[in-house]
Design brief:
The complex is a heterodimer of chains A (about 220) and B (about 450). Chain A has one helix at about 120-125, and strands at about 1-5, 10-15, 20-25, 30-35, 40-45, 60-65, 65-80, 80-90, 95-100, 105-110, 115, 135-140, 140-160, 170-175, 180-190, 190-200. Chain A is built from one helix and 16 strands. Chain B folds into three domains: about 15-225, no CATH class; about 235-255 and about 405-435; about 260-400, Jelly Rolls (Sandwich). Classes of the chains: A mainly beta (about 220), B mainly beta (about 450).
C-alpha cells in the first residue's frame, strides 16, 4: 500500500493495489487516474447510495486457500433494480469480483474471452440480442442465460480497474450452471469481458469486518 | 494506514415518507428493495428513485398481514425480518407469501397455504433434469406435480427486490418430493427456481409470534409427507417383532413336558373306576395342563372321564371332563365310523404346587336297541364281569391355546393396522388435493 494526496481536494488517499488505474477519493468523490507516478483527477463520480449491504471496503474473506480484501465497489442500476460489484484484491496481487444482488453473492474472476463458446458466443459475434435460456460454454462448464439487462453505473468507491464516469453504462448478461457455477458477460464498448465463478454465501467466504447493524446479530463466522 | 472497516452499528432501517399519503414508512432493505407498497395507502413507490416516485396507486383495500411487516423471528436458527407480503392465486386456490430479509443472509420466503407454512429460498443452481424428475443438490429426485399454470399477484404490501405489482403474472411449474416443493417461475425476462420446505406444525407460528394452528384433516398439499409415515414403519417393525416373539414363545412353550402317566383298565358297563395319580408337581409359574386319554380298543363304546386336579395343600380342585368314544356301522350310505379315542382336555393357568389327579372312569357299550342288552347305561345295570378296555392317561404341562395366540396376534396388529389405515387415508387426501393432475404414471408411490 502506498499513500498519496488527492489532486483535487488534497485529502490523503491510499492504494492497496499497485496495478489498478483508478482510485475514487473517499472525501471529494473524484475519480483519480494513475498513469505511472502521476495522479490526475478525472472529475467527480456518483457517491454510492446508502444501502444495507453487509459488505464494505476493508472486508476480508477467503476463496479456498486464498484470502482477499475488498478494495473497491461499483454500484450498478438497471430499469428494475440495482446491484453491487465489489472488487476483491487477493493476497497474490490478483483481483476478482463479488457480485451482490438480491442478497446473494457471486464470486467471480475474469477469464479470457476465448474461453467462451456456444450459442451466446456466436450471438455476440453476430451482434445479436442475447435472449433468456441461451446456452453458453465457459471453460468446459455449460451455462444458460438467466438475465439480460442494460447496466448503468450508479456510484463507485475505492480502487477500480476502470473509470466510471457519470452515465457510464453497458449491457450485462448473467448466466447460471447446474452445479452452482455462475458467470457474467459485460460488453464495454466493443470489448467483451467474461467473468466466471460460483454462488457463495458470506459464511462460505468466511467474511470478516462486515458492517454491523443495530439489532442484527453478527453471524458466528464473522464475529 | 487507513482505518479498518467501520465497526459501529448503523441502523438497517431507513425512515421514509410515502410520496402519496405522507405516511411514515420503514425501508428495511435499502439498496436491495426496488419497489415498496405503502402500508397506509397502498401506493407503489420506486425506491431506486431518490424522489420515491409513485409507480402505481392503490388497487385494493389495504389488509394487514397476519404476521405484521417488521416482525422479527428466528426460524431454524436464522433471524429474519418480515419485509414484504404477497397474496397470490392460481385462479382456484390462493396463498400468502412473506418476504423475509436478513442483511447477512439475504432473502427467504415464508409461504402460508392457509393450512401449513413452508420456508424456502431461491436456488443458486439450476436443477438437473433426470427423465421425468428433477434433481437438486444431488439429492432425491422430485416428480413433476403440476404446471405450468398461471399465478397472479392479488394483493401486495411492503418492500420487494423487484417491481412488484398486483396483477403480475408468472407461469409456475411445481415438482415435489415429501416435504419439499421446487418451483420454476417464469415470465418474459426471467426464470427463477425456488425450493420450499414444509415446516413442522407450529414452527413458523412460534418463530413469528402468531397463534399456532392445530393439525387438522383438511386437504394436504402435494408435497406434504404423511404424518403417519414414520409411525407406520415403526409400528410395523414393532408389530413384526412382537408377532415373531409371540410365535417363538408359542412354538417353544408348545413343547410340552410329561408330568405323569398311568395305564388303567375299565370294565365296559362295569362299575366306575377311580384312578389317582399322586404327586403331580407343577413348579415355577402357572401353567396350562393337558390331560389326554387314549383308549384305542373302543368299538362302539365310550368312556366318561371325570378329572379332578386337587392341590394337596389347599385342596382346591380343578375339574374337567373328557370323553373317549368310537362308533362305527353301516347304513344306506355305506360304512361309517366316528368318535375320538384320544380326547385331550386342557386346564389353563394352574398355579404351581403339588397335585393329585383323580380320574373317575366309567365305560359303556353303545347299543342301538336297549332291549338286546341286559347291562349298560341304558338299563343302569352293572355287569359284574365286564370286558376290560385299557386306557392310558397322560398329564402334560405347557402347550399354547391356539385361540389365545390368534387373539394376541390380532391385538398386536391393531396399532399397525390403524396407522396403515390413517396413512392410506392421508395419501388419498393428498392426491385428491391435486386430482386435476392427469400424469399419474409418474406419480410414484412415496413409500419406498
Amino acid at each position: 500500500m502506498f499513500m498519496a494526496n488527492c489532486p483535487n481536494c488534497g485529502a490523503a488517499i491510499s492504494f492497496r493495489s499497485i496495478d489498478l488505474p483508478v482510485r475514487v477519493c473517499d472525501y471529494c468523490h473524484s475519480s483519480i487516474l494513475r498513469t505511472g507516478d502521476a495522479l490526475v483527477s478525472a472529475g467527480k463520480v456518483a457517491e454510492v447510495p446508502e444501502d444495507v449491504s453487509p459488505l464494505q471496503i476493508g472486508v476480508r474473506g477467503r476463496d479456498g486457500a486464498r484470502s482477499f480484501e475488498l478494495i473497491g465497489r461499483v454500484r450498478w442500476r438497471w430499469t428494475d433494480g440495482g446491484w453491487n460489484e465489489w472488487l476483491a484484491l487477493f493476497d497474490d496481487g490478483s483481483t476478482g469480483w463479488i457480485g451482490e444482488a438480491m442478497g446473494r453473492y457471486m464470486l467471480l474472476r475474469e477469464v479470457a474471452a476465448t474461453g467462451l463458446s456456444g450459442p451466446v458466443e456466436r450471438g455476440l459475434q453476430a451482434g445479436a440480442q442475447i435472449i433468456l435460456g441461451t446456452e453458453a460454454v465457459i471453460d468446459g462448464v455449460q451455462y444458460r442465460v438467466t438475465d439480460v439487462k442494460e447496466a448503468t453505473c450508479a456510484g463507485s468507491e475505492g480502487e477500480l480497474p476502470f473509470n466510471t464516469p457519470p452515465g457510464f453504462s453497458m449491457p450485462s448478461v448473467d448466466l447460471m450452471a447446474a452445479d452452482g457455477h455462475c458467470a457474467s458477460i459485460q460488453m464495454d464498448g466493443g470489448e467483451v469481458k467474461l467473468y466466471a465463478g460460483r454462488y457463495v454465501t458470506l459464511a462460505d467466504m468466511k467474511a470478516t469486518g462486515l458492517r454491523a447493524f443495530e439489532g442484527w446479530p453478527m453471524p458466528r463466522f464473522a464475529a | 494506514m487507513t482505518a479498518g472497516p467501520a465497526t459501529t452499528a448503523t441502523s438497517s432501517v431507513k425512515a421514509l415518507n410515502c410520496t402519496n399519503c405522507g405516511g411514515t414508512l420503514s425501508l428495511r432493505a435499502a439498496g436491495y428493495t426496488v419497489s415498496m407498497v405503502c402500508e397506509h395507502c397502498g401506493a407503489t413507490l420506486d425506491t431506486t428513485d431518490p424522489e420515491l416516485r409513485v409507480i402505481a396507486q392503490a388497487t385494493a383495500a389495504i389488509t394487514r398481514p397476519p404476521i405484521a411487516l417488521g416482525t422479527r423471528g428466528v426460524l431454524r436458527g436464522e433471524t429474519w425480518e418480515v419485509v414484504g407480503y404477497l397474496e397470490r392465486s392460481d385462479g382456484e386456490d390462493g396463498w400468502s407469501e412473506y418476504l423475509l430479509f436478513n442483511p447477512y443472509r439475504g432473502y427467504g420466503w415464508l409461504v402460508d397455504d392457509g393450512r401449513r407454512f413452508s420456508y424456502g429460498f431461491l436456488l443458486d443452481s439450476l436443477p438437473d433434469m433426470d427423465g421425468a424428475q428433477i434433481v437438486i443438490d444431488q439429492g432425491r429426485g422430485l416428480d413433476h406435480d403440476s404446471g405450468p399454470y398461471p399465478v397472479e399477484v392479488k394483493f401486495v404490501v411492503g418492500e420487494f427486490y423487484w417491481r412488484v405489482a398486483v396483477g403480475e403474472r408468472v407461469q409456475v411449474t411445481d415438482y415435489v418430493r415429501p416435504g419439499t416443493t421446487v418451483s420454476c417461475e417464469e415470465n418474459d425476462s426471467e426464470r427463477t427456481w425456488s425450493k420450499l420446505d414444509l415446516l413442522e406444525w407450529g414452527e413458523a407460528e412460534r418463530a413469528f409470534g402468531v397463534e399456532p394452528r392445530r393439525p387438522d384433516s383438511g386437504a394436504p398439499s402435494p408435497a406434504e409427507p404423511s404424518p403417519w409415515r414414520d409411525r407406520l414403519t415403526e409400528s410395523w417393525i414393532i408389530g413384526a417383532i412382537a408377532a415373531v416373539t409371540l410365535l417363538i414363545i408359542a412354538a417353544m412353550s408348545s413343547g410340552t413336558q410329561r408330568l405323569a402317566s398311568v395305564d388303567a383298565q375299565v370294565g365296559l358297563d362295569g362299575a366306575p373306576r377311580t384312578v389317582v395319580i399322586h404327586g403331580v408337581e407343577i413348579t415355577g409359574h402357572p401353567s396350562a395342563i393337558r390331560i389326554s386319554a387314549q383308549s384305542d380298543q373302543l368299538d362302539n363304546d365310550w368312556i366318561d372321564l371325570d378329572y379332578s386336579l386337587v392341590d394337596k395343600r389347599t385342596q382346591e380342585s380343578f375339574d374337567a371332563y373328557g370323553l373317549a368314544e368310537h362308533y362305527s356301522g353301516s347304513d344306506s350310505d355305506g360304512s361309517w365310523s366316528e368318535g375320538d379315542t384320544r380326547p385331550k382336555t386342557r386346564l389353563s393357568s394352574i398355579p404351581p404346587g403339588t397335585y393329585d389327579l383323580v380320574v373317575e372312569l366309567s365305560a359303556h357299550r353303545w347299543v342301538q336297541n336297549a332291549s338286546t342288552s341286559f347291562f349298560g347305561a341304558q338299563t343302569g345295570m352293572v355287569d359284574p364281569n365286564p370286558t376290560l378296555v385299557p386306557v392310558t392317561i397322560n398329564v402334560d404341562r405347557g402347550g399354547m391355546f391356539a385361540g389365545n395366540v390368534i387373539l394376541a396376534l390380532i391385538l398386536i396388529l391393531i396399532w399397525p393396522g390403524f396407522v396403515l389405515w390413517r396413512h392410506l387415508a392421508f395419501e388419498q387426501r393428498r392426491r385428491g388435493s391435486n386430482d386435476d393432475d392427469d400424469d399419474d404414471d409418474d406419480d410414484d408411490d412415496w413409500d419406498d
